[in-house]
Structure prediction request, 684 residues.
Amino acid sequence: MTTRRGFLASLLAASTMPRLSWADAGNPAYLSAAREGDGGYALFGLSETGADVFRIPLPGRGHAATAHPTAPEAVAFARRPGTFALVIDCVTGHVAHRLESPSGRHFYGHGAFVAGGDILCTTENDIDSGEGRIGFWSRREGYARIGEIASGGIGPHEILALPGDVLAVANGGIRTHPSRGRDKLNIPEMRPNLAYARVSGVEEVVELDPDLHLASIRHLASDGTTVGFAMQWQGDLPDPAPLLGLHRRGSAPVLCSADLAEQMAMQGYAGSIAMTGDLVGITSPRGGRVHLFGLDGAFRAALRRADVCGLASRGAALLATDGLGGVLSLASDRMEPLRVAPRAWDNHLVRIV
Amino acid sequence: MKHLTLASLILSLGCAAPLSAGVPEAVQDHALPAVQSFAVQARALAVNAAADCTAAAVIPSYHNAFDAWLGLAHLGFGPLETDGRALTIAFWPDKRGMVASTVARLVADQDAAVADAGEFAQVSIAGRGLFALERLLFDPEYAGYGREDYSCRLVAAIAGDLDQMAGAIAADWSDEAAALLSAGEEGNTRYLNDAEAAQRLYTALLAGLEFVADQRLGRPLGTFDRPRPERAEARRSDRSLRNVTLSISALSDLAQALSTAPTPVTDQAFADALDEARALDDPIFDGVSDPSGRLRVEILQQRVQAIRTAVSAEIGAQLGVGTGFNSADGD
Prediction:
């Protein structure tokens, strides 16, 4: 007679690889890196209301984390021009893999999973030519490097997986070289774009009017149909240049601006973008405000909060994080603080699918 | 708190809950008097312009209002942000020449909005505020306008609009003061703990110093090869250096109020910068075009940058706050 205990034991023995899910890591809804009170850094898993689910120490300040769609794994990128990324097992808190960028490359700080989570895509700089690359890594093979394509521009920053394993890539247009730190080497000639790619290569490149060539396209959000792109103005400030664009493949991009005073108050800088329902938001830590627009491009509201940067969807609303430790829920016309954590939330709040 | 006048609010502060040291002083001794002063001067400007809108009659109160604005302008958060008020009151820097084009358009069209305060509040912000007023009062293009001219009515409309905004700022500052002083208390959604209130004022102090160094001094300095004296702030009304001096004084006042212990390095840095500014005989920074004159303005700029360093080391440490984690270092 098979006992329950014996059945479970044989089941475990039969499976070659334990299949853990995000539930095993406490069901976090979000990931965010933070600087803690003692000056150290850590990656946090957060609940729907911003409560701590887990905390994993990091060796230094990271940039964005990329969450695996099903397995409790987070890829934490070093800040650019970093040459490594850590695949963190969010159940044990251990580093499961360490990705080194190939020789002559460095990471730009963002990644995305395609092929049901089997392939990690990373934005990279080919240092000698300055051309952007998208690197591919096989999760099944222990995150081995398996290939790459051109990103379709210079300085690819955020990369987003769309339905059908299409990738949206924000080619920020800014050339950097590790020997010059984060110095911007080509501002007068920069030409950012939004590119769409598959693992086989770039399919479509969208550029704005030449008079907006100083608007670096850096961060992305999508509802699967519309891609929102957030920009950072590289020209003289103050300037009312648009910082948000909405694009559907095959159509012309729609640029979104608030009224003159509000637009200038963003300080030419959008740090993160998120989309939910018919709402899209961009944050400006420098301007201390979040701008909300409808998917029709119409300005909805400005919500003020110092040093606000992280932004992700939360049902029909948005969730924002800031450098003062605040976690805030944003609706189309108001901001509700949910909690204040004793730490400075870093640039990005990442929704786990 | 809406019904409290500023005066009664000031009196009621004695019973406020314990707060991050420095915040009550900065609110009570610095912010509220500055708000009040600007409201008084903007009212005087509006009353005088309504009585006589010719340039000779309006210019003295224009200067008084501008002086008072410099006592407040660095508190750019909250009430000054609502409806873009700070930028409407002082649309500068104006890289694209929007003040000139908007004023020219209003005058050319004889825009009827001047007849109605509510309608005038809908005019493009570049056509309102102190810089639109400066253009009408001082620019040769409009100089000598007569009592019956459209320009005269526009001057009165701008003055009235400034008065409206100053009044709205004063009303909103009652709420803002209450929010700063009740930081971290139940129901306060603006400042979630004491540190946030201190951080808000501290950030305003640093941003104010940065604005003086980078914009008020940095814009006319341009580069050594290409100095840009024509970019000096309020040069038409000979106010460029005066604005710098008054700004530094106001920021010194805020630093004094906000600090919770002696700040000898900061005090010295402010004194050095003010000495340098008072010794500079270059009211609109015309000197940036020749090497020795340029050096003087550069030295003043360095003095202001030195204040920023001192403030970070002394007051930032006292308050336990720093610059914004994300605003200072984004990606």
Notes: Chain A touches chain B at residues 35, 63, 79-80, 109, 157, 218, 232, 236, 238-239, 259-262, 264-265, 269, 271, 285-286, 288, 304, 306-309, 322-324, 326, 335-337, 340, 344-347 (CB under 8 Å). The first helix of chain A runs from residue 4 to 14. The two ends of chain A are 42 Å apart (CA to CA). Chain A has one domain: 19-351.
